[in-house]
Amino acid sequence: MEAKAEEQQLSQAYGHRQVGQKSLLQSDALYQYILETSVYHREPEPMKELRERTAKHPLKAMAISVDEGQFLNMLLKLINAKNTMEIGVYTGYSLLTTALALPDDGKILAMDINRENYELGLPIIQKAGVAHKIDFKEGPAMPVLDELVKDEKNHASFDFIFVDADKDNYINYHKRLIELVKVGGLIGYDNTLWNGTVVAPPDAPLPKYVRDNRDFILVVNKALAVDPRIEICMLPVGDGITLCRRIK
Ligand code: SAM
Ligand code: CA
């Protein structure tokens, strides 16, 4: 069977939507209604520009959805976030929504192994006048986190941390991030519903990449669900985001 046809069949069977699909809602019409009624016309111009630029990139499906961007922007304002972190930048759509939400002296430590994709979005971020809030580090996030954890002054110093990178490391990131986020602060883990495959039967014929990451997500979801140091809220926005509020 051709790869595309196979993917389509799997998608129908297990709710693993096609690349580019940005909602877990049952009806595409309902999702479209949300976007058209309350999202698109309120999307800040630089975000629209960045979204359109990203749409021309082969890995465009990696970016968070437009409604998730709107959600994160409001969330960051509600919690008065000032010192934040992002693991997994890609072209910077979630980074820009964060940067726009923070006060002028707000900070984002942003990490990605790929600088080239970040540089696609960077001119738009600069034009939006928020690039000064961003400290971009190219390379794997883990060594940076290990360095941060070594210094006690970084402990409990972040208001918000968005994790949207290598799913196999979410569980390892969590061990470090729980030290770095403030008590009362938030960590957001993205893609925790993994296109609905978290409920696919164990023997479902999923593509290897989907299955492997689904398994990592299942492990992290289980761990977060019983972690006494946090309160959690799993939201079906985008591909699922689990918000973890540190309570001790
Ligand atoms: N948040 C981004 C957005 O809204 O456009 C999407 C991020 S994309 C899903 C995941 C990113 O994680 C990729 O750009 C990839 O290069 C990056 N990544 C993968 N492994 C990483 C690692 N070990 N450390 C840091 N970044 C990593
Ligand atoms: Ca994501």
Please summarize what this structure is:
With about 250 residues, this protein is an alpha/beta fold. It contains nine helices and seven strands; from the N terminus they run ααααβαβαβαβαβαββ.
Please, could you describe this protein's structure?
The chain has helices at 3-14, 28-39, 45-54, 66-78, 93-101, 115-127, 141-150, 170-180, 208-225, and strands at 83-87, 107-112, 134-138, 158-163, 181-190, 230-235, 241-246. With 248 residues, the protein is of the alpha/beta class. The chain has one domain: Rossmann fold (3-Layer(aba) Sandwich). It has a 7-stranded mixed sheet, with helices on both faces. Helix 6 (115-127) links the parallel strand 2 and strand 3. Helix 3 runs antiparallel to helix 6 (115-127), helix 4 runs parallel beside helix 5 (93-101) and helix 7 runs parallel beside helix 8 (170-180). The termini are far apart. The model is unreliable at 12-20 (pLDDT under 50). It binds S-adenosylmethionine (SAM) and calcium ion. S-adenosylmethionine binds next to helix 5 and strand 2.
- Roughly what percent helix? 40-55%
Largest sheet: 7 strands, mixed
State the separation between the terminal residues, measured CA to CA.
51 Å
CATH class: Alpha Beta
**What would you give as the CATH superfamily?**
Vaccinia Virus protein VP39
Shape: globular
**The CATH topology:** Rossmann fold
Ligands in the model, by name, code or SMILES, are: S-adenosylmethionine, calcium ion
- Strand percentage, roughly? 15-25%
Give the count of structural domains. 1
Run of helices and strands? HHHHEHEHEHEHEHEE
Rg, alpha carbons? 18 Å
The residue ranges in which pLDDT falls below 50 over 5 or more consecutive positions are 12-20
Total number of beta strands = 7
CATH architecture descriptor: 3-Layer(aba) Sandwich
- What value does the average pLDDT take? 92
Order of strands in the sheet with most strands: 3-2-1-4-5-7-6
What oligomeric state do these chains adopt?
single chain
If helices are DSSP runs of H or I spanning 4 or more residues, what is the number of helices?
9
Coarse structural class: alpha/beta
GO molecular function, one term: caffeoyl-CoA O-methyltransferase activity
Catalytic activity: (E)-caffeoyl-CoA + S-adenosyl-L-methionine = (E)-feruloyl-CoA + S-adenosyl-L-homocysteine + H(+)
Keywords: Metal-binding, Methyltransferase, S-adenosyl-L-methionine, Transferase
Protein name: Caffeoyl-CoA O-methyltransferase 1
